[in-house]
Specification:
The complex is a heterotetramer, with 2 copies of chain A (about 130 residues) and 2 copies of chain C (about 400 residues). With about 130 residues, chain A is α+β, with helices and mostly antiparallel strands. Chain A is built from 5 helices and 3 strands; from the N terminus they run αβββαααα. Chain A has one domain: Sufe protein. Chain: A, CATH 3.90.1010. Chain C has about 400 residues and is α/β, with parallel strands linked by helices. Chain C folds into 2 domains: about 240 residues, Type I PLP-dependent aspartate aminotransferase-like (Major domain) (Aspartate Aminotransferase, domain 2); about 140 residues, Alpha-Beta Complex (Aspartate Aminotransferase, domain 1). Classes of the chains: A alpha+beta (about 130), C alpha/beta (about 400). The structure holds pyridoxal-5'-phosphate (2 copies).
Amino acid sequence: MSQYGSMGYTEKVMEHFRNPRNVGEIKDADAVGSAGNPVCGDLMTIFLKIKDKRIVDIKFMTFGCGAAIASSSMATELVKGKTLEEAANLSKQAIADALDGLPPIKMHCSVLATEAIEAALKDYYSKHPSKS
Amino acid sequence: MSQYGSMGYTEKVMEHFRNPRNVGEIKDADAVGSAGNPVCGDLMTIFLKIKDKRIVDIKFMTFGCGAAIASSSMATELVKGKTLEEAANLSKQAIADALDGLPPIKMHCSVLATEAIEAALKDYYSKHPSKS
Amino acid sequence: MDTPRHINFDYAAGYPVDPEVFKAMAPYFTERYGNPSSLYALGVEAREAFAEAQIRVGELVGAESPEREIFFTSGATESNNLALKGYAFRNRRKGNHIITSSIEHISTINITKYLERNGFAVTRIPVDKYGVIKIDALKASITDETILVSIMYANNELGTVEPISEVGKITREKKIALHVDGTVAVGKIPVDVVDDNIDILTMSSNDIYGPKGVGGLYVRLGTVIEPILQGGGQQRGLRSGTEDIPSTVGFGKAAELAKRRMPDDSKYTSGLRDRLVKGMLNEVEDSYIHGHPTKRLPDIALVRVFGIEGEAIVTELDREGIYISTGSACASKTLAPSHVLESIGLNEIQRHGALQFSFSRLNREGDVDKLLSVLPGVVKRLRDISPVWKFKDRFLEMYTSEEEEEFEQF
Amino acid sequence: MDTPRHINFDYAAGYPVDPEVFKAMAPYFTERYGNPSSLYALGVEAREAFAEAQIRVGELVGAESPEREIFFTSGATESNNLALKGYAFRNRRKGNHIITSSIEHISTINITKYLERNGFAVTRIPVDKYGVIKIDALKASITDETILVSIMYANNELGTVEPISEVGKITREKKIALHVDGTVAVGKIPVDVVDDNIDILTMSSNDIYGPKGVGGLYVRLGTVIEPILQGGGQQRGLRSGTEDIPSTVGFGKAAELAKRRMPDDSKYTSGLRDRLVKGMLNEVEDSYIHGHPTKRLPDIALVRVFGIEGEAIVTELDREGIYISTGSACASKTLAPSHVLESIGLNEIQRHGALQFSFSRLNREGDVDKLLSVLPGVVKRLRDISPVWKFKDRFLEMYTSEEEEEFEQF
Ligand SMILES: Cc1ncc(COP(=O)(O)O)c(C=O)c1O
Ligand SMILES: Cc1ncc(COP(=O)(O)O)c(C=O)c1O
């Protein structure tokens, strides 16, 4: 009937929810960013290792629903190895598309990841003003 | 569940509806009375032969529903052979009771018969003022 | 309490659910009992069943976006309430005038009376002797305040089909919303909301062999109405309350079957109806057929016999296991005579002898023969004791009618 | 589209119809399809079936004149609408003030908001941490204008049973009408409209293994309400629309069964519930049970886990074929968090971890074992990736709660 299975999620969302990539913390991260608000039901924290304006390692932790966790996971995959500029340009639509779609009511979850990346980059540039 | 069968009528009503007693006309009636109004869905006409202040023969014709026809029939049975005074005292409740009851919404049908009898008696007394 | 074998000519009062419909519904009672609001698999199954029913019902009436235009209610009465109150109250700033007809179902009549008590002005346009609304009167009654026209697709007592596509042209041109009560028409004759410019359409499940307790409402995209039940916001906020999936599935299945079977069923029931009407008019003197000769539903006929009262006939036929209905006031709960028969110009004496026949695909040829073998005797017996029949000439002259149409016209 | 085998702890979202109920309904779809308004035998059968259902439903709640006090609607939502709007509008000349609670079902909340938009003043009295309404606040809020108090018999999220008989004493003394939403209580625990001085009672069919799409309303003789649907005047004018006899019969049968089975079912479901709650509190750290320790329904439990979000848990359990529900905003269509959990003092972070369990007679002992074997792992996995759990101390101190009740109190 629709491409969405149980819970209204695609297979891809379920796969990333069940087996999120890049989970955890980077103790000596070059940049850390958070987005969302647990009061609203989601909170994502992202950790970056950066070398030559490129994201060489990335980890995240997310409090939230399946869509929030899967979007977080997918976003880290999409920006891993990318330049900071490329990462800054990641759109919420690109995340949703890479997950084969999100239920309309869950589209806001993909913003969570772009905002967390944005926050991390801001953190990085504030520590390294010369590199921006 | 209730004493009322199909159409909401008792067996007795159905029996009198199916086989009404005293149906017809008395050509040389001593008294004729009508009640009801076909516009309202019922019209009863009653014919009486009267001897010594007693109803010695009675016939009726009725346009109306099952309850109207059965009430008419039962009423004629109840007053046949009775004195004019007894006939005048016949109540709608007595007719309904003799029929083992009428559906509440059909109680007005039993009035039809008492009113027709009343009208016939009036007709009789108006023709024989001395006898009242 | 066993149901005796019976011959039914009063399906309009209630249809049995089609065995295929029942089969489609059954698993949703005991196995697939999910709630469309639930996130997990059982809920997904319910959501899909619901959407499937929307599509089936939408297809029956040509809805372009069934999943957004088809809503389910508890029946035609609620659909009419939602349509009329929902539209009127939501759009009252645009105007306070509503146009309807004098032969609408009692639910529409009582709803529009309610709206009158709540500040709306209602014009009820008259019909001709066939029960067809007077289009000129409708046109003439439109004012700047007119926001809604509500006309039934076909009349449930006469079977007359109304000129909805003409009405739709007018309302579309004047930018007035058009609500149509399609209860007895949808699934019996082709109805297309796009062709006819219908904005809101009431549909009944039971009238197409679906379950009772469920009805439909088509609301064209862009037509805005407000809910009449406050609650959990189901059905996109327009109709709150946990969805009744088994009934909805049944309605959907019934719609699918109706679309497929319409041509054959229509031919079959109209054939039986014509045989019955011809037989009655031939064999019962002073009997008359009403409704429009050609613009009519296949399965409804109103025949009137003079000089006797309808309920007495119903009572007699019941004893023979034959079910019919009557427009006689005596048979109704309120003792009020049919406003439809009054609207086509029948006086009260005439209305008392009105017999309503509604056929279904379950009637057999033999049913008509049986009725025709019984009815003349019943009429004779009741006429023999009827003073109205005895003094027929006097009563008949009280009303000179032109309704003695030739049945051959049909 | 086959239903996979599943373990359901979310029956509150929808119950399967009991096989005996289904068997009782079945003939009314296809054979006994009469309309109670019809005069003939098929109609008599329908009238009797309807009256029988009134009696069965009436008996379940102690109605003294079921045939005059029990009405059937399309469900609890409609019953609540009919009760509240029907009473308020009909009695507005007596006063314009209505008292209700802060933990009513969303339908009651939205109906009372609607009444506020239509000239009524509504007081929503608060509850304590167990979800029990504050009787003193109720007493204090009564004014000369108060015409109606509406309190639910038991809360559908917490399972807490409200002190209705205390409320009934107050309303009776003050001559104020009392409406009670009995949706999740009737048939689960004893409810007696006479003992409790209930004037109007909302009842649900599906919650007692009856069909969906039908609800009940008890209206005490002498309590006058007006209809919310205009129509043909069925059900003594209070609820128009052709009666849905199959569903009504099913509801009647379900009521009969519920009355008989209540003691055993209650013992059974509360046993399972207690096992599940104990297991969870033991095996999942930072988990809490809410609702009143003793004044509670047998079949509902709300357990909350800290640091993770409810929908994620629901999603995980769905994969295992286990169905539960959550009060988390993320799981709702409106993304609005549960007002009930807010009313008992939980902040939004806490509310996000609320898991609702509702049991039925169809649950098996093994269901609880299965859940307990799966849930701790799910919680651990989600906590492992949760920053809220990682920085638990910081988040926990944002809210010091007293809700860590001992489960042994139950
Ligand atoms: C034209 C029309 N509209 C509406 C209705 C109301 O249908 P229900 O009683 O199923 O709600 C009927 C019922 O006979 C009808 O004939
Ligand atoms: C307490 C309460 N009242 C009313 C309702 C509304 O019931 P329905 O959606 O069946 O109309 C519910 C449904 O969950 C409920 O829990």
